[in-house]
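TA notes, week 10

Several of you asked for a full example with nothing omitted. So below is the full record: C-alpha cells for the whole chain, then the designed sequence directly under it. When grading your own attempts, check the secondary structure regions first.
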C-alpha cells in the first residue's frame, strides 16, 4: 500500500457502510519465479491445465483489463479462463439467469449486490476461504446470506457529478472549489457562468442503467441518513402508500434533473449518444460535468487530454438547504460481487475459480490488476497498490472526510432497466419542453406497485 495511514482511515470509514458491502477469499498457489536475461524475476510459465473456467463480467469498462488479468492468471497457473461480457443493456441478473437456463452457468458470476440473495441456492459458501479475513470491516455484509459468505466484493465505488475543474475555471474566470456548491441555487449559478462562456454545463448519461441504478437511486438514499428510514420509504412505495409528488426529496430531485436537462450537451437529441463518447466531451472541454462514477476513468484515459485535466466529484445537490442530507455527500459502497457456481461447474472448476478470486486479492499481479490496471478502489486491506487516478482520489477524499452515503442494495433486479426506461422517456420529453412530473411520478409508482 502506498499510504498505510490513508488506507487505515478508509478501513474505518467503510465500516460505516456495513449494511452495504460484501466479500470473500481463497487460497492459491503460483508458479515459482524464474530469472530473466535482464536479471529480473518473472513467473515461470505454468504447465497447461485441463481445467477451463468462465467469468461473467458485468463491468464493461474493465473488460480489456480483466482479459489481461485472466491471461496473467493462466500464465501463472495453467488454468484457462474465458471472460464473458454481459450484453449491453442487459442486467447481470438477467444474463446469469439465462445462462443457468441454458445449462451454461459461468464458473464465476459478477453481479450487483442486490442480486446476491437471488442465487443463494446456486453458488458456493465461501465462508471458510482464507481471504475472508482480509476484507475491510463491513465488506462482507451485502454478499452474505443467513450468516454465509456467498460473494467477494470487487471494489468500493462512488458516484456523483464529475466536474472538470480546468474547464469550469476557464469558463468562469475564477478558481473552482467543489465544496462551494451546496444548494440547487449554487448549481444553477455555476451552470449559468459555464453556459455564458459557450460550454455545455453538463452531459446527462442516457443509459438506462445510469439513470435508473444511479441517478434515481438518490431519491431513495437522500431520504435519510438512517438506512431503516430509506428501506421503509422503498417498502411504502411497493405497498402503494407513497405519493412521490408529496415527497420533498423527489420534488427537489426533479427540479435539479430539469436544470440538468436544460443545460445538457446534445439537448436536441439527448438519447443519441454512446456511453464511450461521453468522457471525451469532458476531456475536450465541450462539457464541464457528467453524472457518473469513478469506474469511468478507464474511458477517460482514451483521450490524451485526460492527463492535463483535474477532475473532482460534486454531490447531486437537491433543494436550497445547504445542510440537507446528501448536499455535502456523494454515494459510495461496494458495487460488484463475485460468486462461484456450484450447480453446473465441476469440483475442479470450482476450485480453479476459488484460486482466481484468491489470486486477485493476494498476488502482486492480481492486486496490480485491480488497483492500477482496472483503476478500482480495493475492498480489501493489505494491498501494495492504490489507484492514482483523480476520480478515485476524489472518492477517497469524501470517504476520509466521512462525506459519503451508502448505496442501496435491496432494489429489484429490473429496477435500473424499468426506472431507467421511464427516465429516458422523460429526458426526451423534457428536452422538447413536454415533460410532466405528475406523469413520471405515476409511472414510477405503478412500477413499484406491480413489483
Amino acid at each position: 500500500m502506498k499510504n498505510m495511514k490513508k488506507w487505515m482511515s478508509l478501513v474505518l470509514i467503510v465500516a460505516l457502510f456495513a449494511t452495504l458491502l460484501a466479500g470473500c477469499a481463497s487460497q492459491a498457489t503460483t508458479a515459482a519465479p524464474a530469472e530473466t536475461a535482464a536479471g529480473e524475476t518473472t513467473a515461470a510459465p505454468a504447465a497447461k491445465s485441463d481445467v477451463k473456467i468462465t467469468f461473467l463480467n458485468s463491468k464493461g469498462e474493465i473488460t480489456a483489463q480483466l482479459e489481461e488479468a485472466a491471461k496473467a492468471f493462466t500464465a501463472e497457473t495453467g488454468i484457462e479462463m474465458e471472460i464473458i461480457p454481459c450484453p449491453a443493456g442487459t442486467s447481470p441478473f438477467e444474463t446469469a439467469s439465462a445462462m443457468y437456463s441454458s445449462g451454461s452457468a459461468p464458473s464465476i458470476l459478477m453481479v450487483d449486490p442486490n442480486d446476491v440473495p437471488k442465487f443463494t441456492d446456486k453458488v458456493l459458501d465461501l465462508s471458510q476461504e482464507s481471504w475472508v479475513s482480509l476484507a475491510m470491516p463491513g465488506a462482507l455484509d451485502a454478499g452474505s446470506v443467513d450468516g454465509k459468505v456467498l460473494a467477494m466484493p470487487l471494489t468500493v465505488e462512488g458516484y456523483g457529478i464529475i466536474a472538470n475543474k480546468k474547464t469550469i475555471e476557464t469558463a468562469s474566470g475564477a478558481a473552482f472549489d467543489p465544496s462551494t456548491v451546496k444548494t440547487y441555487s449554487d448549481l444553477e449559478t455555476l451552470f449559468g457562468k459555464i453556459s455564458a462562456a459557450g460550454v455545455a454545463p453538463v452531459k446527462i448519461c442516457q443509459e438506462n442503467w445510469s439513470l435508473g441504478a444511479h441517478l434515481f437511486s438518490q431519491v431513495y438514499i437522500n431520504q435519510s441518513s438512517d438506512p431503516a428510514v430509506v428501506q421503509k420509504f422503498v417498502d411504502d412505495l411497493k405497498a402503494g402508500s407513497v405519493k412521490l409528488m408529496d415527497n420533498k426529496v423527489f420534488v427537489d430531485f426533479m427540479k435539479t434533473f430539469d436544470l440538468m436537462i436544460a443545460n445538457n450537451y446534445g439537448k436536441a437529441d439527448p438519447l443519441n449518444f454512446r456511453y464511450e463518447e461521453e468522457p471525451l466531451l469532458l476531456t475536450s472541454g465541450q462539457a464541464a460535468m457528467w453524472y457518473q462514477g469513478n469506474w469511468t476513468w478507464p474511458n477517460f484515459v482514451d483521450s490524451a487530454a485526460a492527463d492535463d485535466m483535474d477532475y473532482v466529484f460534486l454531490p447531486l445537490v437537491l433543494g436550497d438547504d445547504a445542510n440537507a442530507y446528501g448536499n455535502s455527500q456523494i454515494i459510495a459502497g461496494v458495487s460488484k460481487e463475485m460468486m462461484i457456481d456450484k450447480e453446473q461447474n465441476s469440483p475442479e472448476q470450482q476450485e480453479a475459480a476459488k484460486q482466481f478470486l484468491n489470486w486477485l486479492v493476494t498476488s502482486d499481479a492480481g492486486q496490480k490488476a485491480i488497483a492500477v490496471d482496472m483503476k478500482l478502489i480495493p475492498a480489501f486491506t493489505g494491498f501494495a497498490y492504490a489507484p492514482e487516478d483523480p476520480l478515485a482520489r476524489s472518492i477517497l477524499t469524501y470517504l476520509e472526510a466521512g462525506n459519503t452515503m451508502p448505496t442501496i442494495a435491496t432494489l429489484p433486479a429490473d429496477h435500473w432497466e424499468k426506472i431507467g426506461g421511464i427516465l429516458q422517456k422523460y429526458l426526451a420529453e423534457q428536452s422538447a419542453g413536454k415533460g410532466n412530473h405528475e406523469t413520471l411520478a405515476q409511472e414510477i409508482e405503478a412500477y413499484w406497485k406491480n413489483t
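The chain has two domains: 4-156+335-389, 158-330+407-449. Use that as a sanity check on your answer.
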